[in-house]
Amino acid sequence: MEMRFPERLKALEPFWGAWRLNACVGEGSYGKVFKIVRTDLGSEYIAALKWIYIPHQDNEIDEMRSEGMSDEDIRFYYDTLIKSFTNEIRMMSELGGNSHIVNYLDHIVIPRRGEIGWDIFIRMEYLTPLDKYIRAHNFSERDVVTVGWHICQALALCARHKILHRDIKPDNIFRSSDGNYKLGDFGVSRTLEGTRNNLSIKGTPLYMAPEVLTGNQATFSADVYSLGLVLYRLLNRQRMPCLPLYDLPTHDNREKALQRRIRGDVLPEPADGCRDIKRIVLKACAYNPDDRYATAEEMGTMFEKLLKRGRLSDAPLFPENAINQMNSERSSLHPDVKEMQSQHTRLSRKNEAPREENSAIEDLNEIRTVGLVTKLDDIGSDINSGAKYNSRSAANAYIKKVSVEPKRAIIPKKSRPRGGFALIICLILAIALFGGGAFMLFRDQPGSAN
User: Fold this and answer.
1) Is residue 287 helix, strand or coil?
2) Angle at 381 between CA 375 and CA 387, to 5 degrees
C-alpha cells in the first residue's frame, strides 16, 4: 500500500529537483523526519529530510490574535523562532565533516503563500536511531563504551565551538553503516558566547541535569550528565535510575525516581557492566557539577582506555526476548530466569579473561557461578513441571535466596560427605585387623596351648 504524505509536502516534490519522499521515520516537537530517495543512472541514493513547520498547530495564530496581537506582531514573533531553527542549520554546517556529528547536506526555507507560516527543510545523511539499532542487534558492554567514546568526541567538538547541546537522549544519537555513533538534532541548542543568562528550560526533562531542571545556571557538564544517563539506561536493562528492574514502571514510581535525582540522592549502580564502566557512568551522573568530569574530552579518554584494554564483554546486554518485553511493556513468562541466564553468560565470559583478583576471590566467584547454575536447573525443572514459581514475586524471592545462600546450591545436604561416621568405621576395621593378626602370631608360637 502506498504511504500517504501531507499534501503540502507532495506539492513540493521533487525536493532540490531530484529527491522524493519514501517513508516517515520520526517526529519531534516542531516537525517530522522522512526518508527520501533519488535515482541517478540506475543507482538509488538515500538521505534524511527534516521538515520543520511553523506554526506547529493551526490554532496558534488564532490564539495570538485573541490576545490582541496584529498580524505584523505575529510575523515578528515567528521570525524570531525561525532564526532559532536556522541557528541549528548554521551549527550543523560548522560542525560538518566530523565522524560523530550528523552531516548536514542542504537546506531551504519556504514562506507559505497567502498565510502566516513557513516550511523549513534540512537534508542530512540517513542514519539509524540508537534505540532502533538496539532492537535489531545484540548490544554489548563494548557497544555501550563505544557509544560513550564517540558521543564524548562529538561533545568535545561542540564545546570548542561553545555549543551546549542540551538535549542528549537516545533519540538524538544515531549509528552509521560504518559503525560510528553520531550526535544530531541541535534544534534546542544555543551558543553560550555573548550571553549570561544562558539557559531556558528546553530539551527532554527525563535526561536533564538537576541544575537545568531547577533553572540554575548550567555549563557543559550538563551535557556530560545527560550522556551519563543515556549510558546508565543502557547498562540498567533500559531502565532509568531508581526504577524497578523487573516490575513494570508506573507513573508514580517514574515521578519518584525523577524527584530522587533532582534532590541529589546517590544513584544506585546500574545492573550490568564491569566495575570500571559503572564508575565512569556514576561520576558523569554526579549531582554536583564539580564532581563530574570537567570536560567531555576527559570522560571520552576514560572510555578510550577501556576499549584499548581489550577486556570488555561482547555478550548481549539485551537478549531478544528481553527486548520484546521492553518494547511491549508487558512481562513475559519467568523473565527472572532469563535475566539469571544472561548474568551467567556474562560471568562465564568474564572468567575467561585475565583477572586481577587473588585466588580466594576467584574461588568465591566460581562458587557463586556453580550455585547460580544449580539454582537455574532447579527453577527450570520446577517451571517445566508447573510445580511452583508461577508468579513473578515468587521467582524474585527465590532469586534473593540464591544470592544469600550460594553454598547450599553447591553442596546439597544429601551429597555432603559424612566425615565423622567414615572415621569411626575405619577405626573399627583397623582394630579388628590388628587384633586378628596378633592372635594368629600368638597361636603359632612354640609352647602355646593347642
Assistant:
1) coil
2) 110
- Helix and strand numbers (H, E) in the chain are 16, 10
**Amino acid in the structure at residue 245:** L
**How far is residue 37's CA from residue 26's CA, in Å, rounded to a whole number?**
16
Burial of 180 (0-12, 13-18, 19+ CB in 10 A): middle
Closest CA to 85 of 120, 113, 112, 123: 120
* Phi, psi angles (nearest 5°) of residue 357: -75, 160
Q: Give the list of residues 6+ apart from residue 52 with CB closer than 8 angstroms, or none.
A: 30, 31, 85, 119, 120, 121, 122, 187
The set of residues, in sequence order, having a beta carbon less than 8 Å from that of 43 and lying 6+ positions away, is none
DSSP, res 171: G
Pick the closest to residue 207 from 278, 154, 288, 261 (CA basis): 261
- Residue 102: DSSP 8-state: P
Amino acid in position 126: Y
Cβ-Cβ contacts under 8 Å for 145 (sequence gap 6 or more): 277, 303, 306, 307, 312
Q: Are 393 and 375 in contact (CB under 8 A)?
A: no
Give the up-direction half-sphere exposure of residue 35: CA atoms within 13 A in the CB hemisphere: 12
State the amino acid at position 222 in one-letter form: A
**16-20, 213-217, 268-272, 284-288: least confident range:** 213-217
Give the separation between CA 230 and CA 149, rounded to whole angstroms: 13
Tell me what the mean pLDDT of segment 3-29 comes to: 88
Instruction: Give the pLDDT band of residue 318 (cuts 50, 70, 90).
Output: confident
Q: Is 222 helix (H, G, I), strand (E, B) or coil?
A: helix
Residues in contact with 87: Cβ distance below 8 Å, sequence separation at least 6, in sequence order: 189, 190, 191
Check if the beta carbon of residue 335 is closer than 8 Å to that of residue 325. Answer: yes
pLDDT digits (tens, 9 = 90+) for 56-87: 777 889 899 999 999 999 999 888 878 877 77
What pLDDT is recorded for position 379? 37
Lookup: cell for 444: 603359632
Is-contact 237 317, C-beta < 8 A? yes
User: In this model, does residue 112 exceed pLDDT 50?
Assistant: yes
- 410 in Cβ contact with 367 (< 8 Å): yes
Task: For residue 360, give the H/E element and its range.
Answer: helix 359-385
What's the angle, vertex CA 238, arms to CA 237 and CA 244, rounded to 5? 70
- Burial zone of 413 (CB within 10 Å; 0-12 exposed, 13-18 middle, 19+ buried): exposed
CA dihedral sign, ordered 55, 87, 127, 300: negative
